[in-house]
Design a protein that fits this description.
The complex is a heterodimer of chains A (about 300) and B (about 350). Helices cover about 30% and strands about 20% of the residues of chain A. With about 300 residues, chain A is of the alpha+beta class. In chain A, strands 6, 7, 8, 12 and 13 form a five-stranded antiparallel sheet that branches. In chain A, helix 4 crosses helix 5. Chain B is mainly alpha-helical. The chains are: A alpha+beta (about 300), B mainly alpha (about 350).
């Protein structure tokens, strides 16, 4: 933010003083981050983010490919959606792939490079994707490629085993690389966020209600479809509920009614969670997550006390 | 508001709920490292004491939420979060010994309960357990666990340097300090292990090594420094009544922002009295005299000045939050992280 727009909220303290005091510290901090107090030069490099250049070639290649695949997939998805809109038809959802990385890695890297260079061109990206996917699929069965880069488990430059990895592992890896293109949450769930005995049940009860082990109670949750398309087959699931003393109520103790939900775009529905507190549950404050296992961003926190 | 924010912060209640959730998950992992075995009475019971007392869970919260905001899962970050919390406990044990503190989280310090030798030993054990928890990230990160270990080593060294500087000031009764001196010491003592490392560890894990650890330095400094000032200010909050403050930091001779300001604004005679008080060995510093100087801090507006600093740093922390996290997709964890700044400082 430009300095002149920074209104000083800090009472009698001038923004200038804060700026003059902290800027040299920040400058030193960022310089010091380059020359850390670590004695070992290898550790110094690692601590300052030098890892990307220090990775074994095979793993670095994998990252490049993973990133490129994701880029291409997203470009294609956008193009597919736009084309579908233009034609007035619903574009089919891409099928999940189960291929593993392998095959001719040199060709795959070339394709990845092409994909990166073609970031502004869906046509070129699609071409690169086709080449790359074909190359990876052909190697998935374990055909031999370049030195040490065959499909399935191989060895990196230092001889350590490097197993082929399913494509599913790529998603979290590249989520940061392409943050703006990541999927928007499908829906949101809100709950009374019960945390005291008084809030348990419907959240509207005035009297204090204790939850004893062996009892059951219900928590209504509002599910909102915040997307511009209908949601089909939304299910909710609970994690284990963990107490501050690490006691657990297993996830199976929580059920949802209705168990499955279809929601038109923008629509809301109430799902009631029923928590059956096991007879052997120890007293304490329990907390856990309620989430949509197949719908990104659907999450709320469930919290309650057991006496 | 002095800042333009793109990320709506989570409400106070939502922040509390998520902190509680991540704290519970982290404790579930921590307890695996805190197994009670022999010698139980002389070591492992003592080792468990501080972690069992709990706390806000700021560090695990930052680590797990950052990991998720960057694409990772809760499970991915749990061992790193447990490692941070164990390190925090280790640092608290050693700090309490170094500072001669008697109370921690409402109870006697380990050194008060068990004596310095056993407490010191338990603190060492906690430090090494934190390393063990960190190594548990190796199966997940493979080669990329190495940078995490290097960052951890760096963080520990910074924390030790900061603690050494503060202890050195107390030992030599250094009384001509500035805000800049304080913030530099705080950066080392607090910001690195309380904010910078939890955030960059979470991002490193969430992205499998793709995040730039340097992205969290500024946010970590501003938030960590504001957090430390808030912690210092708790010392002046009423204990039993409006005129009763603990003033423990003054008794311990800690160079807080309020003390630095008081030393600057006092008349020469009063200043000389304060300097003489600080020159006394800790056990000879009279609590009533400390409370007198605490009252002077209030009278001269030193507490308000410190609060102003805290707010100014918090404002900058929020600006830097946008720089570090702004490009990420909106998520509950991102909103939680944004909401954590005002929550912790309130």
């Amino acid at each position: 933010m430009p300095k002149d727009k920074r209104k000083d909220r800090a009472g009698g303290l001038s923004a200038k003083l804060v700026e003059e005091t902290t800027t040299p510290i920040i400058n030193d901090l960022e310089r010091a981050a380059i020359s850390t107090p670590l004695v070992n030069p290898a550790l110094r490099q690692l601590a300052s983010g030098g890892v990307s250049t220090a990775r074994p070639g095979r793993e670095a290649a994998f990252d490049v490919i993973a990133s490129a695949v994701q880029t291409v997939e997203r470009v294609l998805a956008v193009s597919r959606t736009r084309a579908g809109r233009a034609l007035g038809v619903r574009s089919p959802q891409p099928r999940p792939r189960k291929a593993t990385v392998g095959g001719d890695v040199a060709a795959a890297i070339a394709a990845a490079n092409a994909a990166a260079a073609a970031a502004n061109s869906a046509a070129m990206a699609a071409q690169a994707a086709a080449t790359m996917v074909a190359s990876m699929m052909s190697g998935a069965g374990g055909g031999s490629g370049g030195a040490g880069v065959a499909g399935g488990p191989g060895r990196d430059a230092e001889g350590a085993e490097f197993p082929g990895r399913p494509m599913a592992h790529m998603t979290p890896m590249v989520a940061m690389a392409m943050p703006r293109l990541a999927l928007a949450p499908d829906a949101s769930v809100t709950s009374p966020l019960v945390r005291s005995r008084a809030d348990l049940g419907t959240g509207r009860l005035r009297e204090r209600r204790a939850v004893h082990h062996g009892a059951a109670f219900r928590v209504p949750m509002t599910v909102t479809n915040g997307t511009n398309r209908p949601l089909k087959g939304l299910t909710l699931r609970s994690s284990d509920l963990v107490s501050s003393k690490a006691d657990r109520i297993p996830s199976g103790a929580v059920s949802f009614d209705p168990p499955r939900l279809d929601l038109a775009r923008g629509a809301r529905a109430v799902v009631t969670a029923t928590i059956e507190v096991p007879a052997d549950a120890r007293p304490g404050s329990y907390t856990g997550r309620v989430y949509g296992p197949n719908h990104q961003g659907v999450e709320t926190i469930l919290s309650f006390s057991v006496r | 508001m002095s800042t333009i924010t793109a990320t709506p912060p989570a409400s106070r209640r939502e922040v509390e709920q998520r902190l509680k959730l991540y704290r519970a998950y982290t404790w579930d992992v921590m307890r695996r490292y805190l197994v009670v075995k022999e010698p139980k009475r002389y070591l492992w019971d003592i080792v468990r004491d501080y972690p069992v007392r709990g706390g806000k869970g700021l560090r695990p919260g930052l680590c797990i939420a950052t990991c998720r905001a960057f694409g990772g899962s809760i499970d991915d970050a749990l061992h790193a979060a447990a490692s941070l919390e164990l390190l925090h406990s280790a640092i608290l044990v050693h700090d309490d010994i170094a500072d001669g503190s008697t109370r921690r989280r409402g109870r006697s310090t380990l050194s008060q309960k068990h004596g310095v030798p056993l407490a010191l030993n338990a603190g060492d054990a906690l430090a090494f357990l934190s390393v063990e928890a960190l190594y548990a990230t190796v199966p997940l990160l493979h080669q990329r666990a190495a940078p995490l270990v290097a960052m951890f080593q760096e963080t520990v060294q910074r924390a030790l340097e900061g603690q050494a500087i503060e202890l050195g000031w107390i030992r030599e009764n250094v009384c001509d300090l500035t805000e800049s001196d304080y913030l530099r010491m705080t950066l080392l003592k607090t910001c690195w292990y309380s904010v910078i490392q939890p955030c960059r560890a979470g991002a490193h894990i969430g992205t499998r090594g793709r995040a730039d650890p340097g992205d969290f330095l500024r946010f970590g400094f501003y938030f960590g420094a504001a957090f430390q000032i808030r912690d210092d200010l708790r010392n002046f909050e009423h204990e039993d009544g409006p005129n009763d403050v603990r003033a423990d930091d003054l008794i311990e001779g800690k160079r807080t922002l309020t003390l630095i300001n008081l030393l600057r604004v006092l008349a020469p005679e009063e200043r000389a009295e304060l300097v003489a008080f600080l020159a006394l060995p800790r056990e000879r510093r009279d609590p009533d005299v400390a409370r007198h100087f605490a009252a002077l801090m209030k009278h001269h507006g030193c507490i308000e000045v410190a609060r102003d600093w805290m707010r100014a740093l918090a404002d900058r922390a929020i600006e830097e939050f946008e720089a570090a996290y702004g490009d990420l997709d909106d998520s509950d964890d991102k909103r939680f992280l944004r909401g954590l700044v005002p929550y912790v400082l309130s």
